[in-house]
Amino acid sequence: MSVQLLTSSLAILLQGLVTTVLLSVAAIAGGTLVGLVAAVLRSFGPWGTSRVAKVYIELFRGTPVLITLMFIYFGVSYFGYAIDVFAAGAIGLSIYQGAYIAEIFRSGIEAVPKGQWEVSQILGLSRPQTFAFVVLPQTGKIVLPPLVGQYLSLIKDTSIVSMIGMSELMHGGQAIVDRIGRPVEIYGLVALIYFVVCFPVSQWVRHHDRRRLS
Amino acid sequence: MTDPIQVKPIISLSGVSKSFGATHVLKEINLDVNPGEVVVLIGASGSGKSTVLRIMAGLETTDSGQVWVNEVPLHEARRAKEIRGHVGMVFQQFNLFPHKSALGNVTLALIKARRMSPAEARDRAMQALERVGLADRAQHYPSQLSGGQQQRVAIARALAVEPGIMFFDEATSALDPELVGEVTQVMRSLARDGMTMVVVTHEMGFARQTADRVVFMDKGVIAEQGEPEQLFVNPANERTRQFLHRVLDH
After folding, report:
1. pLDDT tens profile A125-154
2. Which of these, A74, A91, A101, B142, has the minimum number of CB atoms within 10 Å of its CB?
């Protein structure tokens, strides 16, 4: 392999990595927001909204992320609008991951003892105040480990966005394989890059979790 | 206040019934509490005494009957909310906010519900912590406090909103025996200061020494009530006699 080919290949991977990170950050922010709203509606929303949140959660937990992405990317153009592939990827992953994140938040909300709600009610706090100042801060500690686990899964799911033509890390790897072959080495390298991104995050949570439990 | 006929009760339950599923927990309960009175509810577990307390505090609804507390009709769903922030309750499990310091536990409702300034809330909270002898623990988190200290913080938190009535639901049952005294001591001093109190407890010593009236509940009804000396020394009801025999003789 020539030096030039090697450096241009690395440049493609690096560029792909940057896009993967940006897409991950966007989808983590979006998915967390969507998940939190869905969890709150599911747990406390009036009957109609609670029902809608439940359908949303079950629908996206029961269908492949690729179909979500295809629906958004091609569905929008079907109605005559253009959508940027990055936006389609970020929105699709946010909606898909939001369904899982909603369930994580919901289990966290339910893990807070009922007595916390009761004493807050007697002290004169409203339900939204109780949620914001009493329950949610306690939920944070409970949900952090599973939430970060979900974020790791999300980071890896960004590779699927290559299927709708997004030039992220996975797509970069495919492009290089198309040019020079050597799929084992190239995909091995791509996998290593994902690992290098994800491993420190999972280690950090493990460390945090141990400290929390001790 | 000396003539009970002249005094308007601050709590009044009439014909209150309550079921959980097929279980009739309360059957046609009638109970009045006068301002400044200390009423202690005793009885075996499952007798309905905690449910009575939770109904008075607005935590449970009734199936039938009327409940007036602090001039709020709790049996009217639309108005029941008005009681919030006007009574205090101390729970068996403390229910402190684990993410807040002792001071933060006391100030939260003052700042968020009462809209006090943080400085004003802090002053009020420190007074309340002083009252339970824990001013020097203000910055400690619940996990850094003993059970007795946690329960005293919970009492301070309830007192800080200046409730007209204090409810105690087995406030000492979760405590190690050597920590019970510091909590009952605070409760006694509240009673001496004229606080209206309704107390569910297994501490017969507290009931005998501090109560103005002891109410014995059995299977969802009030089987007997009276002044502590009369009820403890010479109970009229056979079930009361059996219950007292069980709890006092071991």
Report:
1. 999 999 999 999 999 888 988 999 999 999
2. A74
- Taking the Cβ of residue A136 and every Cβ of chain B, the question of whether any pair is shorter than 8 Å is answered with no
Nearest C-alpha neighbor of B155 from the set B116, B112, B177, B184: B184
Nearest to A150 by CA among A7, A30, A31: A31
| Residue B80 contacts A, CB cutoff 8 Å | no
Is-contact A16 A170, C-beta < 8 A? yes
Tell whether A123 lies on the interface with B, counting CB pairs under 8 A: yes
The per-residue pLDDT string of chain B (250 residues; one tens digit each, 9 = 90 and over) reads: 455 556 789 999 999 999 999 899 999 999 999 999 999 999 998 899 999 999 999 999 999 999 999 999 999 988 889 999 999 999 999 999 999 999 999 999 999 999 999 999 999 999 999 999 999 999 999 999 999 999 999 999 999 999 999 999 999 999 998 999 999 999 999 999 999 999 999 999 999 999 999 999 999 999 999 999 999 999 999 999 999 988 887 5
In this prediction the ipTM stands at: 0.92
Nearest to B25 by CA among B59, B48, B44, B45: B48
Q: Is the dihedral of CA B33, B39, B44, B45 positive or negative?
A: positive
Q: Which residues of A touch B99 (CB under 8 A)?
A: 137-138, 141
Q: A119–B85: do the CB atoms touch at under 8 Å? A: no
Interface test mutation site (partner B, options A112, A116, A123, A143, max chain B beta carbons within 10 A): A123
Is B85 an 8 Å CB contact of chain A? yes
Which residue matches tokens 């590779």?
A159
What backbone phi and psi angles, to 5 degrees, belong to B62? -110, 160
With CB atoms and an 8 Å threshold, state whether B91 touches A118: yes
| Domain annotation for chain A: domains and CATH numbers | 3-208 (1.10.3720.10)
Neighbour count for residue B93 (Cβ, 10 Å): 16
Mutate to test the interface with A, among B60, B69, B91, B99 (most CBs of A within 10 A): B99
Q: Exposure of A150 by Cβ count < 10 A (0-12 exposed, 13-18 middle, 19+ buried)?
A: buried
Tell which of B51, B56, B59, B92 to mutate to test the A interface (max A CBs under 10 Å).
B59
Alpha-carbon gap: B213 to the closest alpha carbon of chain A (Å): 25
Q: What is chain A's length?
A: 214
Smallest Cβ distance to B109: which of A115, A118, A125?
A: A125
The distance of A210 to chain B (nearest Cα, Å) reads 17
